[in-house]
Design a protein that fits this description.
Number of strands: 10
Structural class: alpha/beta
Strand order of the largest sheet: 3-2-1-4-5
Number of helices: 14
Radius of gyration: 20 Å
Order of helices and strands: EEEHHEHEHEEEHHHHHHHEHHEH
Largest sheet: 5 strands, mixed
Distance between the termini: 13 Å
Shape: globular
Length: about 280
């Protein structure tokens, strides 16, 4: 049995199955060694993952392929330890979520892989490994085109009067916010990036309004200009992540404006990763 995982900021998608393609998906809380200690990650594996797997599945697992946010060379060892404790018969391979995204959207073809979810990232990919990466820098300094970035820009434009008052009032009413409460959530409460990304459904619901369409075009153009064009490559850009999936038309329009070819859109990286690892 093989276990494949894609872990983001809030959740981890797991696929357990055999080489004939028979398997199933389960889900747990996200695992991120950059933000979590080893004990917290161990609890997610033992308390959330293992109870969803049958004893036979867990006991016969011989390989774990884990792709996760925060899985850098300096931090991935903690994830390896947790996985090998839970699956002692398995060889655990832990890689970054960006390499997972590249393998999910490009397979074994070269291309530019992009993540547009709560955060954003991109890389130049040769069909097996990443060969170049423009640092995303997080939602304060970068993360252009991400859910957190869209939320941050939209809130700022609404409160500064750069978008119609009806949009500002609708946003505050929909989420039960006031300007003071909104600022408190951004500057004083934890996980501000998740809060800002949670406002994206409102933006999506109003994406046909001219002012919002122009806003989205500028946000996605910023992503391409500050990230993708830096690779100086004619290869197509392919996408994964919820923002990319639900704003496909807006992403394609921004790419066309900058003469950037667009490849595929994959809703969940785990789907492409199962294909990449030859299990379907």
């Amino acid at each position: 049995m093989k276990l494949i995982a894609d872990s983001g900021a809030t959740k981890t998608d797991w696929w357990i199955g055999d080489e004939t393609g028979h398997g199933r998906m389960v889900q747990t809380e996200g695992i991120n060694p950059f933000h979590q200690g080893e004990e917290a990650m161990r609890c997610i594996v033992t308390d959330q993952l293992l109870p969803q797997l049958g004893g036979h599945e867990a006991g016969s697992c011989t390989a774990v392929c884990f792709y996760g946010a925060g899985c850098l060379p300096a931090t991935s060892g903690k994830v390896v330890n947790c996985l090998q404790e839970a699956f002692p018969q398995a060889a655990a391979d832990v890689q970054s979520d960006l390499l997972g995204a590249a393998r999910a959207v490009c397979g074994q073809d070269a291309g530019i892989a992009c993540i547009l979810g709560t955060g954003s990232n991109s890389c130049l990919y040769n069909g097996q490994e990443m060969v170049q990466n423009v640092s995303p820098l997080g939602y304060i300094l970068g993360d252009e085109g991400s859910g957190a970035y869209l939320g941050k820009r939209f809130v700022g434009d609404c409160l500064k009067g750069l978008l119609p008052a009806a949009l500002r009032d609708g946003l505050l009413e929909t989420y039960g916010l006031t300007p003071a409460l909104l600022l408190d959530k951004v500057y004083r409460q934890p996980l501000a990036h998740r809060f800002l990304a949670s406002l994206v459904p409102f933006i999506h619901a109003h994406r046909q309004e001219p002012e919002v369409a122009a806003f989205l075009d500028d946000c996605f153009c910023q992503f391409f200009v500050r990230n993708v064009l830096a690779y100086h490559s004619p290869l197509p850009a392919s996408f994964t992540g919820s923002v990319a999936w639900y704003f496909q038309e807006e992403v394609k329009k921004a790419a066309a404006r900058l003469n950037i070819p667009v490849g595929s859109f994959v809703k969940k990286p785990i789907e492409g990763l199962v294909r990449y690892h030859g299990t379907v």
